[in-house]
Amino acid sequence: MSGGTGIPVFAAGTDESSVHGLSYVHGSAQLPSGRVALTVAADGRLRVEALTGTTRTVRTGRLDLAVLNRVLGALLAGPPGAAPGQAGAPGGLAAADTGRRLTVAGLLPDGDASWDDATTTPVPGVGRALEALAAQVLDPAAAGRLPGVLLALDEIDPAEAGTTARPAAAIGTVGGRAAYALAEPEQGFGLVALDGADPLGGSGTEAGVLPTALALGTAGGRELFAVGGADGAVQVWDAVSGALLHGTAGGEGAQAVTAGLVQGVPLVFSAGRQGEVQAWHAEDGRALGLLSVAGQGAAVLCHARCAGLDLVAAAGDDALVRVWDAATGEQLHLLVGHGDRVTALAVLSLGDQALLASAGQDGSVRLWDLATGQPLAVLTGHSGTVTALAFLRTGGDPLLASCALDGTVRTWDVYTARALDGRPVARGWLTALAAVPHDGRDLLVTGDESGQLTFWDPATWTAVGDCAPGAGQDFPVNALAVGELDGRPVLAAGHGDGTLRLWDAATRTALHTAAPEGGPVTSVALCPAGDRTLVVCGTATGAVRCLDPRSGAPLSVPTSHTGPVSAVAVGAPDQDGRALLASAGTDGTVRVREALGGAPLLRLTADPAGVTALAVGSVAGRPTLATAGPDGTVRLWDATDGAPGPAPAGSLPGPVTALSFGLLDTREVLVGGGADGSLRIWDARDGSPAGDFTGGGSPVRSLVLQDLGGETLLASGDQGATLRLWHAGSGTLLNEAELDRLPLAVAFGEAGLHVVGPGGAITL
Question: How far apart are CA 470 and CA 464, in angstroms?
């Protein structure tokens, strides 16, 4: 039922698109699993609303009409069967007997129709496919049964998603003076001296970041100021001069990637659904600059070499193709012609010339002269969105192959722009193409919605082999890339469940399987880097994964968090003397960078439910991370290699809201504060308990452990604007004071105990 089905689907832009469409409702607000409502207009506009208790989530986007056609075809076929997603109701949706309703208006030849589980015409089996679609829309990070090319979600503004700036503060030094950093909603952020309240720099409301975490620290003799934002970005400034030293751009993600050697340097280019194209060094992850797409983002990228120049092409939802000189960042061409979203690019290098092929949702394939930017041909014949392109070596003239959601692969003569062949090669959707070298010519590899790779001889159109992912692993192939490893062709395949598989293309045997991380894989690139080849992929959540194909070991890259930053910290130096900058996010990851230069050092998943608190310290001479999550569990990690440390005994009730390293007498300890106001101290070397303290029931917002005159004191401030001071060794509460501000940061100083909150600092 892919592509054309003869079903009267209204075209985009008609008046009917606002009236006709499909509506599916599952459950009700009174059920534990809540209510999910899915609507698809006749032009493919999509909206999913989920209501659980008082929590309401809405996501919008655009669905390829091939999906709507398949659903309608299944409804017409009868008895109805399940479409993709038939394996169940993912995402925690309720079982089928909790009440479902399906309505189709204006799209069926016999008139409108409805199904309701509470009637004698219950929702047919295609309801399972709609449940899977709704779950994938609501949680793009979850395994996706629907191929990524079929679904383009609108970006969610952090404010609309309920992610707003919150007040944050940190205490340190600036220019040798005791100082604090304070960020308040709608007021920007700034640095202020503690003695005299002199302003030391900052930003206004136009800073372009919604701060959620702050840190002050030193690295290489320089005082640093770090900010984490609601959009996942982390940026670091010289606290004295105000110069931006390094940072990640938030709210962009990296769903599309490409790679290549640019003037002999291995570079990777990445782009999300909004923002600019980011260039970075493949071997060490150093960010090298941006290629401007006017903030429009890109859905597909490719690298090419033409007339001695390294070029990068990008295209996406705006139907434009942009081409840059990768070495200088200069935009060379803006290619106009497609009538809808561009979903595929491919390049054929011909000495001093190169051809660019582009294709997309309008079903056409266009050829361009990359040297001049001039259009060469428009190839038509597909009746659905073109999902992938690949140039083929045949021993004679090169060919271009294309596949589409109409289930066909077509080949074209590159020089004459003449259609050579077109035939269906799959019962379902074709999602990816690649050309694999074989005996002086190329075999064509197709990837489909079932997760299988099929090798074809394009001269005879006979299948010569396949690579199957295995039973129960039938998630769609979202991306393919071909490269060379140790003189042999290798094939990288990214799947809808987030799995990345590397195959020996000659023997069609598996080399490595990288477990899912960061959501469904959306694009893959292979990059030569010195004596090795790197595998790079973008994911549905915007995370970039970089792997060594020989070992499968992950490599760090400087991408932003895919959710708000919950904490940042500048910590102790590693064995090479580099001070570390750590950031944690609601995406569950911790990123460690070299604090001064920004080089990525480590990325680890600390808590899939989100990291709520973070601290960096030195334990037994090793830089160490402490993380905690919403279940009250605290974890220790080696900050250089990510190895788990000793497990702190016992958890705090509810989410952990603050962490800090310190010394209790001569013991290296970790202090944690919880949402119920309680605090606990652990021995940082073995995780054994070293003290418990009862708070006032409000979440701990700040804490510090300090030796003063041979006595260790513990100070904490909570959400109820109460400050408490304990003798840490005996557990004795020494003082309790009500404050006139929320204690966001506390620190001991010569003048007393400094407390920073909205409005500034006070000293007790």
Answer: 19
Q: Which two tokens stand for residue 638?
A: 């080696």
Q: Is the pTM of this model over 0.90?
A: no
What amino acid occupies position 72? L
Listed in sequence order, the residues at least 6 apart from 406 whose beta carbon sits closer than 8 Å to its beta carbon are 2, 3, 4, 66, 382, 383, 384, 424
Q: Which two tokens stand for residue 195?
A: 């003695």
CA separation, residue 619 to residues 365, 663, 670 (Å): 59, 10, 10
367-393 exposure pattern, b = at least 16 Cβ within 10 A, e = fewer: bbebbeeeeebebebbebbbbbbbbbe
Q: How far apart are CA 320 and CA 298, in angstroms?
A: 10
Q: What is the pLDDT of residues 106-156, one digit of tens each?
A: 999 989 999 998 888 899 988 888 988 998 898 887 888 889 899 888 866
- Cβ neighbours of residue 512 closer than 8 Å, sequence gap 6 or more: 501, 502, 547, 549, 551, 552
Q: How far apart are CA 519 and CA 496, in angstroms?
A: 8
DSSP-derived 3-state class of residue 188: coil
> Helix (H, G, I), strand (E, B), or coil: what is residue 55?
strand
| CA 626 to mean position of chain CA atoms | 23
Q: Cα separation of 45 and 61, whole Å?
A: 6
Residue 607 has a CB neighbour count (10 Å cut-off) of 20
Task: Output the CA–CA distances (angstroms, integers) from residue 17 to 4, 64, 105, 111, 166, in the order listed.
Answer: 18, 14, 10, 16, 41
